[in-house]
Automatic annotation (TrEMBL):
<protein>
    <recommendedName>
        <fullName>Lipid-A-disaccharide synthase</fullName>
        <ecNumber>2.4.1.182</ecNumber>
    </recommendedName>
</protein>
<keyword id="KW-0443">Lipid metabolism</keyword>
<dbReference type="GO" id="GO:0005543">
    <property type="term" value="F:phospholipid binding"/>
</dbReference>
<dbReference type="GO" id="GO:0008915">
    <property type="term" value="F:lipid-A-disaccharide synthase activity"/>
</dbReference>
<keyword id="KW-0441">Lipid A biosynthesis</keyword>
<dbReference type="GO" id="GO:0009245">
    <property type="term" value="P:lipid A biosynthetic process"/>
</dbReference>
<dbReference type="GO" id="GO:0016020">
    <property type="term" value="C:membrane"/>
</dbReference>
<keyword id="KW-0328">Glycosyltransferase</keyword>
<dbReference type="InterPro" id="IPR003835">
    <property type="entry name" value="Glyco_trans_19"/>
</dbReference>
<keyword id="KW-0444">Lipid biosynthesis</keyword>
<keyword id="KW-0808">Transferase</keyword>
<comment type="function">
    <text>Condensation of UDP-2,3-diacylglucosamine and 2,3-diacylglucosamine-1-phosphate to form lipid A disaccharide, a precursor of lipid A, a phosphorylated glycolipid that anchors the lipopolysaccharide to the outer membrane of the cell.</text>
</comment>
<dbReference type="Pfam" id="PF02684">
    <property type="entry name" value="LpxB"/>
</dbReference>
Length: 373
C-alpha cells in the first residue's frame, strides 16, 4: 500500500521514523512519501517537504508568514492528490494537519492521526473537526483515550513512543542510573532551549545567565537538528555565560545520559528528560501577545504546561513561565534540583512517571492498526 505521512517538527520526525520502520515491517511493499526530516528519510520515506521550511512559532509568526503557510498547504493537497495514498497519517502538528484532514477526508482519503494534537488543553472545539475528518485517532498519553472516547472519536491508546526511543538509547550507552553515578563529581547540567530559532533566541540567554550564577558546574547545550552551531555560538558570545559551556549538536540523548540536572524549554523535551531520569526545571517565555492569547484559550482546562506534570497530574517539576523565567529565579530552582530533598523527591516521581506511561511498542501497535484498517 501507499502511505503519506505529515510531521512538521523534530519530534514528529523522530516518531515518524519509528512508525515508518514499523509500517514497512508489517507491509514490506509499502511506498512511503512524507513531510518530515532526515530521520524519516533515513527510515525509507521520500520527502516531499522538510520540516525546516515549516517552523513558524506563535500567533505573530504565523500571521507574518501566512502567505508561505498557505502556499505550503496548497502544495501539500496537490502532492497528496498526485500520490493517491491508501493511508494518510498525520503526526501532531495540529494547525496544519487538521486543515489537511478537513480537505482529505471529503476527498476520499483514509485519515489516521498519530500523536494527538493537544485539543484537551486548548481549542477543545477542534474535537468536532477531528470527529468529522479523522477515521482513526491513535493517542500516546493515557488520559487522552478517555477524553476522546467521551466525545465520540474512534480512539486507541498505543503507548508512548518515547519509551522505545529512550530504551534504545539506553541500550546503546549508559543507563540513567549509571550516568548519575558518573556525573556526581563533575555535575554536568544540560540546557535544552528548544528547537525553533525564536524560542532559542529568547530562552537561551536567560538559561546562560542563570547558569553563570553556578559557575562551579559544566554546562552542555543540546543543539537542535534544524539549527547551526554558529547560531548557538553567537548567543553565547553575547550573553552572560558560565565559564564552562559547550554546544553538542544532534546528540540530545547522549547529553541527557550524562546530565546531573537540566533546564528544559516546555515541549516534548520535558518528557524525554524525565524518561532519562534527569531532574529538571521547565521554562517558557514567548511573545507577550501570543502568550496572552494562549492563556486565554487554555483558560482553566489544564493546570500545567509540562508533559511531566500533566501526565502525573501533580507539580513534579517546577515550571517558570513568562516573567517567572528570569536568571535569579531559575538559578534558585536549579540549585534545589542539583542536591537536596527536592532532587530526591523528583527522582522518585520520575520513576513513577515512567511506570505510568506503560510498556513500549507504540510504533508497532500503531503500524498494525494503520496497515490493517
Amino acid at each position: 500500500m501507499k502511505y503519506y505521512l505529515i510531521a512538521g517538527e523534530p519530534s514528529g520526525d523522530l516518531h515518524g521514523s519509528h512508525l515508518i520502520r514499523a509500517i514497512r515491517a508489517e507491509d514490506p511493499t509499502a511506498e512511503v512519501r512524507a513531510w518530515g526530516g532526515d530521520l524519516m528519510a533515513a527510515a525509507g520515506a521520500t520527502l516531499a517537504k522538510h520540516y525546516r521550511e515549516l517552523a513558524f512559532m506563535g500567533v505573530v509568526e504565523v500571521i507574518r508568514n501566512l502567505p508561505t503557510i498557505l502556499r505550503n498547504e496548497r502544495f501539500c493537497r496537490d502532492d497528496i492528490a498526485a500520490f493517491q495514498p491508501d493511508r494518510l497519517v498525520l503526526i501532531d502538528y495540529s494547525g496544519f494537519n487538521l486543515r489537511i484532514a478537513a480537505w482529505a477526508k471529503p476527498a476520499g482519503f483514509h485519515v489516521t492521526y498519530y500523536i494527538s494534537p493537544q485539543v484537551w488543553a486548548s481549542r477543545s472545539s477542534r474535537v468536532k473537526r477531528i470527529r468529522a475528518y479523522v477515521d482513526q485517532m491513535l493517542v500516546i498519553l493515557p488520559f487522552e483515550a478517555d477524553w476522546y472516547a467521551a466525545r465520540g472519536v474512534p480512539v486507541t491508546f498505543v503507548g508512548h513512543p518515547l519509551l522505545d526511543v529512550v530504551r534504545e538509547a539506553e541500550s546503546n550507552g549508559a543507563r540513567p542510573q549509571d550516568a548519575e553515578q558518573v556525573v556526581q563529581e563533575r555535575r554536568t547540567i544540560a540546557l535544552l532551549p528548544g528547537s525553533r530559532r525564536q524560542e532559542i533566541t529568547v530562552g537561551l540567554p536567560l538559561m546562560l545567565a542563570a547558569a553563570a550564577r553556578h559557575p562551579e558546574h559544566d554546562y552542555v547545550i543540546a543543539g537542535a537538528p534544524a539549527q547551526e552551531e554558529s547560531f548557538y555560538a553567537a548567543i553565547i558570545a553575547g550573553a552572560t555565560a558560565p565559564p564552562r559551556v559547550r554546544v553538542v549538536m544532534n546528540a540530545t540523548y547522549q547529553v541527557l545520559q550524562s546530565a546531573h540536572a537540566a533546564i528544559v524549554t516546555s515541549g516534548t523535551a520535558t518528557l524525554e528528560t524525565a524518561l532519562f531520569g534527569v531532574p529538571q526545571v521547565v521554562v517558557y517565555r514567548g511573545n507577550w501577545l501570543a502568550y496572552r492569547i494562549a492563556k486565554w484559550m487554555i483558560a482553566n482546562r489544564i493546570k500545567y504546561i509540562s508533559l511531566v506534570n500533566l501526565v502525573m497530574d501533580a507539580p513534579v517539576v517546577p515550571e517558570l513561565i513568562q516573567a517567572d523565567f528570569n536568571p535569579a529565579n531559575l538559578a534558585g530552582h536549579l540549585e534545589k534540583i542539583i542536591a537536596g530533598p527536592l532532587r530526591d523527591r523528583q527522582l522518585k516521581d520520575l520513576q513513577l512517571l515512567r511506570e505510568r506511561l506503560g510498556e513500549g511498542g507504540a510504533a508497532v501497535r500503531a503500524a498494525r492498526l494503520i496497515t490493517s484498517s
